[in-house]
């Protein structure tokens, strides 16, 4: 990745070297297209036997004359952050002397994973392949050569002296005016690439039964399956049980039917599983095991080759997810995760496809509201559902929009989590609306109720596990 503007430092070092050698280097000409090895640049101005020693002296002078003068290119830090945001690695592969290149990285505090120096042109390919680089950003035609030789996507920026026409002629795939354009390009590139991978994966599967909750992930998966396979080779199945809120059921069915997909609503009996009722940290394992044990035979009966879940790439790195393990043990496939699609990308793709679920708030099952160690029962789930419905209705009557809402069952009391912004406005701790809200929660079946001052936090019940 091209990150720094080396012209000022290179120029200053050339001037210092020229003063020592009594040579007046054409600095502007020599720095107009930086990238080739130093010896190549010096060879036109020194005797052949003087090039090597002059290069060694240049590298000795470089730290004093160049490091402090060289700035990062506009957009470089944002480009690194964009790669980090996609859980990528940042590798610098450069023709510069490695120690001096590292001095630049350290001086500018650039967050990179690996630096490889003294490689040039096609020679960069070995390092790029070894580091698993899929995209190489450069500013010289020889950077394009290295990327192509490594089988990486070549992205060129117009900050190194090579023209757009030269870079295109060299075979680059993308030309950007500067690194400032890179984050948006990367977002689009990854979304497009991952959606294509999802389509290819689904086509290869032949037919699928989607474990469909009606949330953003499984809705996108269902829509993608229909696009790739046709509705006749896709079905949706929503497990009905006490843990699925009533309010989620009709919209989920309506969306699936709008795609022309048959919807099955088998009854699941996770409550019959002791591990589920006990509600220790692995409760989700027993829930997902029950669901897949029910859906597997249904898929077989309909001649559908696979059961697919809406697990996305973020879920796979989110830490403690026993439900994912249960599904994997039962052979479920995870096309969104396998394509690398993150939650943000699921929402963006859904928005582009016009899916009504694109901005739907996360709607975890009702059991996720019950504190670990407190037994899950139909009574507890029902009172949580009543309480949440009452709170939404109350806030709606008062014109207070709420996106995320959870009533947590802590055993002896309820803790209400709402969007944090509401805690400084309509739901101040001593406000009349807050008092009415907590009264409604108690009427739903809780002896005590309080408003969590930290606001809504997805997965807040996991705090107890971490502690």
TrEMBL record:
InterPro entries: HAD-like_sf, HAD_sf, LarE, Ni-pincer_cofactor_biosynth, PGP-like_dom2, Rossmann-like_a/b/a_fold. Pfam families: Hydrolase. CDD domains: LarE-like (cd01990). This is ATP-dependent sacrificial sulfur transferase LarE. It comes from Nocardioides koreensis.
């Amino acid at each position: 990745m091209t990150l720094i503007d080396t012209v000022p430092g290179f120029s200053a070092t050339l001037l210092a070297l020229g003063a020592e050698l009594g040579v007046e280097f054409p600095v502007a000409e020599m720095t107009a297209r930086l990238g080739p090895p130093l010896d190549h640049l010096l060879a036109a101005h020194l005797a052949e036997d003087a090039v090597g020693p002059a290069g060694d002296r240049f590298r000795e002078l470089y730290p004093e004359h160049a490091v402090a003068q060289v700035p990062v290119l506009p957009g470089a830090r944002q480009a690194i952050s964009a790669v980090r945001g996609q859980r990528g690695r940042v590798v610098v592969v450069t023709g510069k002397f490695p120690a001096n290149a590292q001095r630049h990285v350290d001086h500018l505090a650039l967050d990179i994973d690996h630096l490889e120096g003294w490689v040039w042109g096609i020679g960069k390919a070995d390092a790029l392949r070894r580091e698993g680089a899929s995209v190489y950003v450069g500013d010289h035609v020889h950077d394009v050569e290295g990327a192509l030789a490594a089988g990486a996507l070549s992205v060129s920026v117009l900050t190194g002296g090579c023209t757009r026409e030269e870079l295109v002629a060299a075979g680059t795939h993308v030309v950007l005016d500067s690194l400032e354009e890179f984050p948006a390009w990367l977002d689009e590139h990854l979304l497009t690439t991952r959606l294509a991978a999802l389509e290819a994966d689904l086509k290869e599967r032949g037919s699928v039964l989607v474990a469909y909750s009606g949330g953003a992930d499984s809705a996108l998966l269902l829509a993608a399956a229909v696009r790739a396979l046709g509705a006749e080779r896709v079905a949706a199945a929503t497990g009905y049980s006490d843990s699925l809120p009533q309010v989620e059921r009709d919209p989920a069915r309506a969306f699936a039917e709008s795609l022309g997909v048959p919807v099955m609503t088998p009854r699941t009996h996770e409550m019959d599983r002791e591990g589920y009722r006990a509600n220790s940290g692995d409760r989700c394992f027993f829930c997902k095991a029950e669901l897949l044990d029910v859906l597997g035979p249904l898929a077989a009966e309909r001649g559908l080759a696979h059961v697919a879940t809406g697990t996305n790439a973020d879920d796979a790195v989110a830490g403690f997810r026993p439900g994912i393990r249960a599904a994997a043990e039962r052979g479920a496939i995870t096309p969104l995760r396998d394509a690398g699609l993150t939650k943000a990308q699921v929402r963006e793709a859904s928005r582009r496809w016009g899916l009504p679920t694109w901005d739907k708030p996360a709607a975890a099952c009702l059991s996720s509201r019950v504190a670990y160690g407190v037994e899950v029962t139909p009574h507890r789930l029902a009172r949580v559902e009543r309480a949440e419905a009452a709170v939404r209705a109350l806030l709606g009557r008062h014109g207070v929009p709420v996106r995320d809402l959870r009533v947590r069952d802590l055993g002896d009391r309820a803790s209400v989590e709402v969007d944090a912004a509401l805690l400084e406005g309509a739901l101040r701790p001593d406000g009349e609306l807050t008092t009415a809200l907590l009264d409604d929660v108690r009427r739903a079946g809780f002896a005590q109720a309080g408003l969590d001052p930290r606001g809504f936090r997805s997965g807040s019940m996991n705090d107890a596990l971490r502690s």
